[in-house]
Amino acid sequence: MTTIIEVEDLRKDFGPTRALDGVSLEVEQGTVLGLLGPNGAGKTTTVRVLATLLAPTGGTARVAGFDVRTQPDKVRSIIGLTGQYAAVDEKLTGHENLWMVGRLLGMSKRQAHERAEHLLERFRLSDAGDRQVRTYSGGMRRRVDLAVSLVGRPSVLFLDEPTTGLDPVSRLELWEVARELVADGTTVLLTTQYLEEADELADRIVVIDRGKVIAEGTADELKDRTGGRTLEVVVARRDQVGRAQEVLCGLAPPEGVRTDPAARTVAMPVDHDTALAAEAISALTAAEVEIEDFHLNRPSLDDVFLALTGHAAETGEHHDPGEEHGRRFHGPLPGGADELLTDRKAR
Amino acid sequence: MTSVPLDDLAPSSTHDYRRPRGLAAMFHDGAILTWRNLVSLPRTPELVLFTLIQPVMFVVLFNYVFGGSIGQSLPPGVSYAQFLIPGIMVQTIVFGTSATSVGLAEDLQKGLVDRFRSLPIARSAVLSGRIVADTVRLSMVALVLIVVGYVVGFRFEGGLLWGAVMIGFSVAFGFAMSWIMANIGMRVKDPETANTAGFVWLFPLTFLSSVFVPVATMPGWLQPIARNNPVTLVSNLLRELSILGRPAVGTVLPVVLWIIGLTAVFAPMAVNRYRKV
User: What pLDDT band is residue A227 in, cutting at 50, 70 and 90?
Assistant: First the structure.
């Protein structure tokens, strides 16, 4: 494995504000690094420095061995950047956008045309290729934006919050493309504030907060830091939630048992003891509690983030469709993640 | 060239194409971005409308509403149409330059400038592509005005050659003014603000000049300001070129100096600003 992105002690000040306060990270070639953190943590600043859009105040950043400060054109010729906003010309057609970038990269007219056609087809935009981008849906814009950043076949792709504001289907599509790119050997640096997204895509995760790296590792390693698994039971009848709670309190320390009457859920910590989970289900059945559903949940990255930073990861985007979508993967959290987080914080 | 498989997104550091280098790269990249801006032009209806309708409206309104009274203060033998068209040409072109600030602010806001800056292309390309395309647009405005002018009675009395020189000077002044607008666009970074910031100061600039009325009809304290306004200097030169067909050195020189001076100050400032946005 070769290291393709090397960042060492990177600092960036905007006037009196310190956006990056000594960030160091490394990305191996052909892997996905998830740069995870809340709004304002320094994710986008890191990407902008690596994409040669911002000069760092201190420290070094190298992409494929090229220094972003002294060899920006070398860096630019091997990177692709897809930002939070679809950076395509709305008045040009999808084809024209792709063609233009191909021409700027030095392709002949025919080469640029062929590359544009290939990418349109690959991103299922062939039918819309001759329409102005301003007529595209949000998902199509992101696709064409991603296609534009792939015209020059970059070895390193920066995806800066690529799915922010996307509908769940488009999000899944984008994840799919990202996986294919990585399978083909592209290195991806993904920034996200969606814990689910980092969990889905990233080989390794670097968590940053207030311009500093506060943790790094695989998603599993990060989750292991916050402890064991939880058994969650969804009770069929609301009037049985109380009884289910009594049963579980008989099996585990009562302070660990959480109930949410509204969601009809009861949860207890089981750590790695699956036998305890089975015992709990049997005990509930014996007590004639009607069970609708149950799961063993590992801690979500939400929990990880809270444990690491002492504050919740979400910053005001509670109604983001992607977040709800993300939760579906882990099953419902008792009482919703927010409530759970506040609960833990209080304790 | 072998055809690329459809699903091939694989990274590649070896390409069967090459970017031009140095000065050639500046022209190559600038030309592509000029193309981009020119292709978008007819797809921006409000800009086309503004570009075509506004000068027509001004010519018609001023010529027929004010023409009667202002015409009396003109030298004998000069019709108001003869006086007005060169003035309105300067005014329309000056107003037209404000689209430069809006266009750049839009590109910045939508992340397009970030896109271009993350590509290995000439640093000057975004600005040169914008300004060259805008200069082409301004030339079209000038031609539209000549056509409208001929309808209301304007003529190139001094011959078509001097007429071409007249259009050349007006567009060159627009080019110089565009660099001021480029600075505004890159500083405000928001198209609406850029529109306002690019526009407001153009009213005093163009009205406190000889665009619509002879400076001699203004109050005495205002006359020195109006007389030294570059817009007046350009308007007067355009009139000499279209009416007399032989410009005096004293009229040409200040205009040339303004065009060179504005460009020399504001173009490097804009390029410098672009590096830092």
Answer: low
Instruction: List B residues 231-260 in contact with A (Cβ-Cβ < 8 A).
Output: none
A3-223, CATH topology level: Rossmann fold (3.40.50)
Q: Does A226-346 carry CATH code 3.30.70? A: yes
**Does the residue B71 lie in any domain?**
no
Residue A338's pLDDT band, with cuts at 50, 70 and 90, is very low
> Domain residues for B207?
24-41+48-62+79-276
- Report the pLDDT value the prediction gives residue B79, as an integer from 0 to 100: 87
Place of tokens 């600092």: A11
Bridge partners, A294 (sequence order): A233
Give the closest-approach CA distance of B29 to chain A in angstroms.
Answer: 6
| A169 touches B: beta carbon within 8 Å | no
In a domain, B13, yes or no: no
DSSP letter assigned to residue B242: I
Give the CA radius of gyration of chain A.
Answer: 23
Residue B130 lies in a domain: yes
Query: What mean pLDDT comes out for the span A234-262?
Result: 86
- Residue B124 near residue B30 (C-beta atoms within 8 A): yes
A118 in B contact zone (CB under 8 Å): yes
Phi and psi at residue B37, to the nearest 5°:
-70, -35
Q: Does residue B4 form part of some domain?
A: no
Mean pLDDT check: name the lowest of A62-71, B38-47, B264-273.
Answer: B38-47
